[in-house]
Design brief:
Layout (H helix, E strand, L loop, with lengths): L2 H8 L3 E7 L4 E9 L5 E8 L4 H21 L5 E8 L8 H13 L4 E5 L5 H8 L16 H20 L8 E5 L3 H12 L3 E5 L3 H11 L2 E2 L12 E4 L18 E2 L11 H8 L3 E2 L2 H4 L2 H8 L8 H8 L1 H16 L3 H19 L6
Parallel strand pairs: 3-4, 3-5, 6-7, 6-9, 7-8, 9-10, 10-11
Antiparallel strand pairs: 1-2, 2-4
Length: about 350
């Protein structure tokens, strides 16, 4: 499928291919929808197998950011960037600053932030070439702790809907992926008295979780089939797919990963199986709320950001209620929520104010 066919399929406004011969930088910036404002989204660094894989990832991720930013009540559109390469080799100062110049060339239509395999320090290098960066060290900083806090609140809401109580004491939670968000989520779950199962491709991270939280480890290839109350995907996307959707032995799926559904119809199958899915772009919205607060007049205020993140609990309950009332999947109900806000404000912004 060609680039324009893919843009039409996912509804994108703009896709920017960036190549810098001097540094070897290869990056793609996807701007999905700017109806609500400039497109804010992270910069992911990943060793994709092909450029087609990189393009598809940035299209799916930037589309998800449109829905996420809308659902979180932000006046921001959806965008994302991917840098194609090995994390070590592709993160030179020169390459990141070259990427910053490409971001700057867009005139503020895209605002960069950290994502998988990029850091606050990396964003400082991007910011040396453009002001269109969020999540700086002197501002909101690393969004992972706030993302984890939002996921924890969303998980409590899902437990309330599925089990009648948001108390996670004694609940078995499997956390798949023990990066910055996954480990911080484990802290919250351990503090709440949950029984933790953990899995990660990195055995050192698994060992840390076992030692710190008394967790039990699960081999990565057995994780989706493990019996648990809540399965929490906190690694990469696509964990709910044709192969796995029949294998889950949980009552709830609630985690921080983006694009957990390989396709939207997989949410319909989860519904049929009686598995409550907490839509990813809502439950993991804490990070973007934190970064976006940096852009508000007067700069970043942590207490304001955290108060907004805690709304994720009630937002998910509203999504679950809509899904039940309309007989649709929670994923479709969440997309409907975002689309309604975008449509309403798109009409308001037809009024020219100079």
């Amino acid at each position: 499928m060609g680039v324009f066919d893919l843009m039409e399929r996912y509804g994108h406004e703009q896709v920017v291919f960036c190549y810098d011969k001097a540094t070897g930088l290869k990056a793609i910036i996807g701007i999905h929808d700017t109806s609500l404002g400039p497109a804010l989204g992270g910069v992911r660094l990943w060793p994709y197998d092909t450029e087609e894989d990189a393009l598809l990832d940035v299209l799916r991720l930037s589309r998800g950011m449109t829905y996420k930013n809308a659902a979180m009540g932000l006046d921001l559109g959806g965008g994302k960037a991917v840098i194609w390469g090995e994390p070590g080799a592709a993160k030179s100062e020169a390459a990141l600053r070259a990427f910053g110049r490409f971001v700057h060339s867009l005139g503020g239509r895209y605002i960069a932030a950290e994502d998988v395999n990029t850091t606050v320090d990396d964003m400082a290098l991007v910011a040396a070439e453009t002001p269109h960066v969020a999540g700086r060290g002197e501002g909101s900083g690393d969004p992972s702790p706030v993302t984890a806090w939002g996921v924890f609140q969303g998980m409590r809401a899902a437990a309330r809907w599925a089990f009648g109580s948001d108390d996670l004491q004694g609940r078995t939670v499997l956390v798949q992926g023990l990066g910055k968000v996954g480990l911080r989520l484990c802290e919250h779950l351990h503090g709440a008295g949950a029984r933790l199962l953990v899995t990660d491709l990195n055995p050192q991270r698994v060992g840390e979780a076992v030692e710190r939280f008394g967790a039990a480890s699960v081999p990565p290839d057995e994780a989706v089939s493990a019996a648990c109350d809540i399965f929490s995907p906190c690694a990469l996307g696509g964990v709910v797919n044709d192969d796995t959707v029949e294998r889950f032995q949980c009552r709830i799926i609630a985690g921080s990963a983006n694009n957990q559904l390989q396709e939207l119809h997989h949410a319909d199958r989860l519904k049929e199986r009686g598995i409550l899915y907490a839509p990813d772009f809502i439950i993991n919205g804490g990070g973007v709320i934190n970064a976006a607060d940096e852009l508000r007049p007067g700069g970043y205020r942590q207490e304001r950001a955290l108060a907004q993140v805690e709304r994720i609990y009630h937002l998910l309950l509203a999504v679950f209620r809509t899904a039940e009332e309309q007989g649709i999947s929670t994923a479709r109900a969440a997309e409907q929520l975002s689309e309604e806000r975008i449509a309403a404000l798109r009409n308001v912004r037809r009024i020219y104010t100079g």
